Amino acid sequence: MLILSSLLVFPSAAQPKDSLVVVRDTFERPFPIVWRSIKQLIEEQHCGIESEKQSFDEQTEMYRGNIRSAPCVLASGEDSTYEVLKRYGRVPIIRGGVWTSGRIQYNFNVKDLPGKKVQVVLTAELSGYEAYVTHLSHAWNANGILERQMMERLRQMLTKAKDGSSSP
Question: Does residue 50 contact residue 39 with C-beta atoms inside 8 Å?
């Protein structure tokens, strides 16, 4: 019985857990413009906003806030969901599992910095529904590909706005 219990613990410990990928960038733009651009970016991805919190420190005269997207659908259906999910993160191993939907949720932390700069920190979490073995949604860390694409798009939006090409 002792051997059996150690075998039950070992597989979960043996499967590596990917660490959270954190993507950061600093922009020389006012906080309200960066904030609106992030909201616009989330809407461009056809995601809603699950929560947004913003605060202003009167002593330092600086803003800070957090915007979390609603889960965004990446894939659905038995045929292609697993292939899409494994492109963007390490899908949990479920023997005989059938993934029928995959989503991503973005989390933006935004704060004013001295010198009229704004820092944006972006993380993301993947989730998928496994419909054959567990009948549950499972969540895991994304590998950074989609986060870097989002940050690059934000950079483009803010550069265009600064050049006067378009306003967020």
Answer: no
**8 within some domain:** no
Q: At 30, is the secondary structure helix, strand, or coil? A: coil
pTM for the complete prediction?
Answer: 0.84
- DSSP state letter for 47: -
Query: How many CA atoms, within 13 angstroms, populate the side-chain half-sphere of residue 63?
Result: 18
pLDDT value at residue 163: 65
Q: Three-class SS string for 135-156?
A: CEEEEEEECCHHHHHHHHHHHH
Whether residue 146 is contained in a domain is answered as yes
HSE, side-chain direction, 13 A CA sphere, residue 10: 6
pLDDT < 70: residue spans in the chain: 1-17, 161-168
What CATH number does residue 110 fall under?
Answer: 3.30.530
C-alpha to C-alpha distance for 50 and 73, rounded to whole angstroms: 14
